[in-house]
Amino acid sequence: MIRGIRSLPRTVWLVSLISLVNDAASDMIYPLVPLYLASVLMAGPKALGLIEGIAEAVSSVLKLFAGALADRSGKVRAWVIAGYGIAGFARPLIGVVTSWPGLLACRFADRVGKGLRSAPRDALISLSVEAHQRGLAFGFHRAMDNVGAVVGPLAAAALLAADVGLRNVFLLAVIPAVVVLVLAFAVPEPERPAASPKEPLRWKLADLPAPFRRYLVALALFTLGNSSNMFLLLRANELGASATRTTLMWALYSLVAALLSTPLSALSDRWGRARVLTVAWLAYAIAYLAIGLLPVADWALWVAFAGYGAVTAALEGTEKALVADLVPRARIGSAYGWYNLVAGLLLLPASLLFGEIWSGVSPFAAFAFGAACAFAGVVVLRAWVGPTGRAAD
Questions:
Q1: d(CA 255, CA 393)
Q2: Which range is the signal sequence, renumbered to this chain (predicted)?
Q3: Beta carbons of 166 and 21 less than 8 angstroms apart
Q4: Which are the contacts of 28, defined by CB distance < 8 A and separation ≥ 6?
Q5: CB-side exposure of 384: number of CA atoms within 13 Å?
Q6: What per-residue confidence (pLDDT) applies to 152?
C-alpha cells in the first residue's frame, strides 16, 4: 500500500494537498453552521434544508457544464484555480451575515466555487493515473481531504475553547483560503488532445455510454436519501451535544474516513467497484438507522459517527473510480460533470424531504427514509452492474 501511494504522480499529491488545506478551512466552520443558524440567526431544520439544497443544486449544475467545457477545451487547470478561489473567499463571509438569507448567499457562493472545480479536478486525477491505480488515487485524494476535515474541526474546537466567538472563527477561515489559491497555481495541466473549437459542446447524457447511464440511476436512488451531513450535526446538537463536542464528533468522523479511504477505495481495484459499493451503501443504511434511534448524545453517538466515517471512506473514492471505468478518456470531464450533477442536484429534494419528515413526523422517520433509499440503490446497482465494477450489458 505504501509503495503504491509513493508511486502516485506529483499531480495527485499536489491536488490532494490542496484538498487537505481547503477542507481544513471548510470544516473549521462547517460543523458550526447548524449551531450558528439556530442560536444566532434563529432558524431551524426547514431553513437548513432549503439552504443546503439550493446551494448544492446550483453547484451540481455548474459541475456538469464545467466538466463539459473542460473536455471541449482540453484544459482543466483554470477551472480548478477559479473554483478554489471563489469558495475560499466566500466562506469567511458567513461571519458577517445577520440573517439566514445572508447565510444562503455565502453557501451559494461557496458551492459555485465547488461546482466550477469538482469535475475538472476529478478529471485531472483520472487523467494522471493508470486504470489499475484509479481506486488508489481517488482513495488517497479523499483520505487527504478527510485529514483536512480533521484539522479543521480541531482548530475550531481549540478556538472555541479559547473563547473566540463563532463569527471570528468563520473570519479566520480566510487564512487557509490564501494557501489553497497559491497551491492551485502550481497544478500542472495534464496532456490530452483538445476537441476542435468548432465542435458543439457535448454535455448530453445520451452521448455517454449506456452502462454509465445505468450506474447513474442507482446513484440517484442512493443520493435521494443522502441529505446534507449538517443534519447529522443538528441531530447531535438535538441529543444534547455541545458545540465543542459536536465539532469533535465531526473530527472523529473525518479522522476515520481519512484513515480508511485509501485502503477501502484501493480494495475496489482488486475486488470490484460494485462489490465495494454494495457493502458501503448497505452499511450507510445501518448507520443512518442507528443515528436516528439514539436517545441521547452518549458514547453510542461517538461510535455512530465513527461508523459513518468508515462508510464514507468506502464509497467516496470507489464511486468516482467507477465513473472512469465506464467512459472513454475524451469524455471524462463530462462524465464527472454528470456524476456530480446527480449526486448534488438530488441533494435539494433529499434535504427538503429530510427536513420536512424531521419536522412533520420525527427525526427517526427522516433517517429511516434515508436508509430505505440506500437499500433501493443497492438493489439497482446489483441488478445492472457486475461484481467487477463494469456495467452488465
A1: 39
A2: none
A3: no
A4: 152, 153, 155, 156, 169, 172, 173, 176
A5: 17
A6: 84
Measured N-to-C along each axis, helices 243-271 and 273-293 cross at an angle, to the nearest 10 degrees, of 160
What are the DSSP calls for 320-372, one per residue?
HHHHHHHS-GGGHHHHHHHHHHHHHHTHHHHHHHHHHHHHHT-HHHHHHHHHH
CA distance 152 to 86: 19
Cell numbers placing 156: 475550531
Hey, what's the cell of 155?
482548530
Tens digit of pLDDT for each residue in 16-51? 999 999 988 887 876 676 666 665 555 556 666 666
Q: Which three cell numbers stand for residue 5?
A: 501511494
What are the residues facing 385 on neighbouring strands?
391
* Residue-range domains of the chain with CATH: 2-187+208-384 (1.20.1250.20)
Give the number of other CB atoms < 10 A from CB of residue 365: 13
Q: Is the pLDDT reported for residue 15 higher than 90?
A: yes
Is the torsion defined by CA of 244, 248, 249, 253 positive or negative? positive
At 220, which amino acid appears? A
Share of the chain above pLDDT 90, in %: 17
What span, in angstroms and rounded, lies between the C-alpha atoms of 188 and 15? 10
Residue that has been written with the C-alpha cell 442536484 in this structure? 345
Q: Tell me the β-bridge partners of 331.
A: none
Contact (Cβ atoms closer than 8 angstroms) between residue 344 and residue 364 = no
**How wide is the angle at C-alpha 303 spanned by C-alphas 298 and 309, nearest 5°?**
135
